[in-house]
TrEMBL record:
Coiled coil: none annotated. The keyword Ion transport applies. Belongs to the aromatic acid exporter (TC 2.A.85) family. It is found in: Membrane. This is Uncharacterized protein.
C-alpha cells in the first residue's frame, strides 16, 4: 500500500488505513496480560498505603519489634560476611554456611530465649557431632561394602531414639535439643560419606556452628537487648493494674445502673474488662517468659543468678484466679435478670466499700512488685480492712435478706383487706418504674390481666419474678466475696516472692 498524506489519501487517489494493534490482540487468551484500569491502580495504591500504615502502627506499638528486625538482619549480614570474605571461606570451605543456618535458627526475640535455644543447639550439636564422628570412624573400619549399611542403620537408631525420648514429659522443655541432634547427625553423616576426609569435614562443620552461635548471642546481648525478665516483670505489674481497674469499673457500672452496661446491651468500649480478659489469655506468655528469664545473666534490677522467676509465674496464676471472678461479675452486668434499683441502693454502701478496699489492695500489691519493695504493714492493714468490708457485706445480706425474697407482700395486703384494686394499681406502677429486663413483657401482660379480672394471680407471679430478679444481686455479692477470699492467696504469693527475691523493705535506702 502506498504512503498517504496528512489527509489519509495517496497521490494516486488511494486511501490508507492506519491500524494499531495492542500486544494482547495478537496473543492467545491464556497469554494475554490483564489490562489495569485507573480505578484498579488507585485501589492498589490505597492498599499499599493501608499496609504501610498498619506496619508503622505495629512497629510503634512496641519499639522492640523493629529493634529485633534490625538485629536479625545485622546478625545474618555478619554471618554472610564469613562466606563473602576470602579468608574464612578458604579455611572452612562450604562448611562455613552452617554458621548462617545457626544464626537464623538461634536468634530469638529475647536474650533468655536465645540463650535457651543456644543451649539446646550447643548440646545437641556436640552430642550429634561426637556420635557422628564415632559412627564415621566405625564405618571406615568396616570397609567400603559395609559402610553405607552401618551409616543407614545408625540414622535409623538415632532418629527412633531421639523421637521417643523427646516425648517424655520431663524432657519436654528440651524438645528442640533432640531435634537438633537428629538433623545435625543426619546432615553430618550423610554429607561426610562422599568426602575424602569425613572426620575433618565434620569438625569444620562443628566449628562453623559454634561461630554462628557466638554471633547470635553477641548481637542479641550487646545491641538493643530485650530481656525476658524485664518483660515478665512489666506484664505482671500491668496485670495487677488491669484486675484492680476492672473490679472498680464493674462495681461502679453495677451500682450506678449504667443502661448500656446493665440492660442487656454490650458497650462498644470496655478497655478495663478487655485488659482483664487479656490477663486471662496471657498465661502461656507468662510461663514462656519465666522459662526464658531463667537463662538470662544478671541484668538491671535483677542482680542474682538464682532469681525466682518461677514464682513470678505462680503469682500470675493466682492473680488470674482473681480475674476469673471479675469477669464473672462483669457477666452479671449483661445478664437478662437484673435486680431493681431499690435493692441495689440498699446494699450500695457495703458493695462499694468491699470493692474499693479490694481494688486498693490489688493496686498496692502491684506497686510492691513494680518497686520491688515489701510494705508488710500496709498490706496487713489493707487486708484487715478488706476482711472487715467483706464481713459488713455478709452481715448486710443476712439482716436485709427479706429484700431479696419479698414475694407475696402485696398479695397478703390484698387478702387482709387492703383492697384489690389499690393493690393492682400499686403493682402496676411498681412494675412500670422498676428496671426488670426479665421477662421483658411483664407490664403488658399485667395490663391484659387487669382487663380480664385476674389481677390477684398475676400479682403473685410478678412478685415471684421480682424476687428472682432481686436474687441476682446476691449472685454479684457472692462473686465479690469470693474475690476477697482469693486475695488471701494472692497476698501470700506476693509475700513469698518478695522474700525469695529479697525485695527491700519500704523506707530502706536503694
Amino acid at each position: 500500500m502506498s504512503r498517504g498524506n496528512s489527509n489519509g489519501t495517496t497521490s494516486d487517489g488511494g486511501v490508507t488505513v492506519n491500524v494499531t494493534l495492542s500486544p494482547n490482540a495478537v496473543l492467545p487468551g491464556f497469554a494475554r496480560r490483564p489490562e489495569v484500569t485507573t480505578e484498579e491502580s488507585c485501589r492498589g495504591f490505597s492498599r499499599c498505603g493501608w499496609a504501610a500504615t498498619a506496619a508503622w502502627a505495629f512497629a510503634r506499638e512496641d519499639a522492640g519489634r523493629a529493634a529485633f528486625a534490625f538485629k536479625a538482619g545485622l546478625a545474618m549480614l555478619l554471618a554472610s560476611l564469613l562466606v563473602l570474605i576470602g579468608e574464612p571461606f578458604t579455611v572452612f570451605g562450604t562448611n562455613i554456611i552452617w554458621s548462617i543456618l545457626t544464626v537464623g535458627i538461634m536468634l530469638e526475640y529475647t536474650v533468655g530465649a536465645t540463650f535457651n535455644r543456644g543451649f539446646n543447639r550447643g548440646v545437641g550439636t556436640m552430642v550429634a557431632g561426637v556420635v557422628a564422628v564415632a559412627v564415621i570412624w566405625i564405618s571406615l573400619r568396616c570397609g567400603s561394602v559395609a559402610e553405607p549399611y552401618v551409616i543407614g542403620l545408625s540414622i535409623f537408631l538415632v532418629g527412633a531414639a531421639t523421637s521417643f525420648v523427646k516425648q517424655l514429659p520431663t524432657l519436654a522443655p528440651y524438645e528442640y535439643g533432640f531435634r537438633v541432634i537428629l538433623f545435625t547427625y543426619c546432615l553430618i553423616v550423610v554429607s561426610a560419606y562422599r568426602v575424602r576426609e569425613p572426620i575433618t569435614a565434620a569438625l569444620y562443620r562443628l566449628y562453623a556452628i559454634a561461630i554462628g552461635a557466638v554471633l547470635a548471642l553477641l548481637v542479641n546481648v550487646l545491641i538493643f537487648p530485650a530481656w525476658a525478665g524485664e518483660q515478665l516483670h512489666r506484664e505482671l505489674v500491668a496485670s495487677f493494674a488491669a484486675v484492680a481497674d476492672s473490679l472498680h469499673d464493674c462495681m461502679r457500672s453495677y451500682l450506678t445502673g449504667d443502661e448500656t452496661a446493665v440492660d442487656g446491651g454490650v458497650p462498644d468500649d470496655e478497655p478495663a474488662i478487655e485488659k482483664c480478659r487479656a490477663t486471662l489469655n496471657a498465661s502461656a506468655r507468662i510461663d514462656s517468659l519465666a522459662s526464658s528469664a531463667r537463662w538470662e545473666p544478671p541484668h538491671g534490677r535483677f542482680r542474682s543468678f538464682s532469681f525466682p522467676w518461677s514464682h513470678y509465674a505462680r503469682v500470675g496464676a493466682v492473680l488470674r484466679h482473681c480475674a476469673y471472678e471479675v469477669v464473672a461479675m462483669h457477666g452479671c452486668l449483661h445478664s437478662k435478670i437484673q435486680a431493681p434499683d431499690g435493692v441495689r441502693q440498699a446494699f450500695r454502701a457495703e458493695i462499694e466499700d468491699a470493692a474499693a478496699q479490694a481494688a486498693e489492695l490489688v493496686r498496692v500489691l502491684g506497686g510492691d512488685v513494680d518497686g520491688m519493695t515489701r510494705s508488710s504493714a500496709e498490706r496487713l492493714s489493707l487486708l484487715k480492712s478488706v476482711h472487715g468490708s467483706a464481713y459488713g457485706l455478709q452481715l448486710a445480706l443476712e439482716l436485709n435478706s427479706h429484700l431479696l425474697v419479698s414475694a407475696g407482700s402485696l398479695v397478703e395486703e390484698a387478702k387482709n383487706g387492703g383492697g384489690l384494686e389499690r393493690s393492682c394499681s400499686r403493682l402496676h406502677e411498681s412494675t412500670r418504674r422498676q428496671r426488670l429486663s426479665w421477662p421483658s413483657r411483664e407490664a403488658d401482660e399485667l395490663e391484659e390481666t387487669e382487663a380480664g379480672g385476674g389481677c390477684a394471680a398475676m400479682m403473685m407471679r410478678t412478685r415471684a419474678l421480682e424476687s428472682t430478679a432481686a436474687l441476682s444481686l446476691a449472685t454479684f455479692a457472692s462473686l465479690l466475696l469470693e474475690f476477697v477470699a482469693r486475695l488471701d492467696h494472692l497476698v501470700d504469693a506476693v509475700d513469698e516472692l518478695s522474700k525469695l527475691a529479697k525485695f527491700r523493705e519500704e523506707g530502706d535506702p536503694i
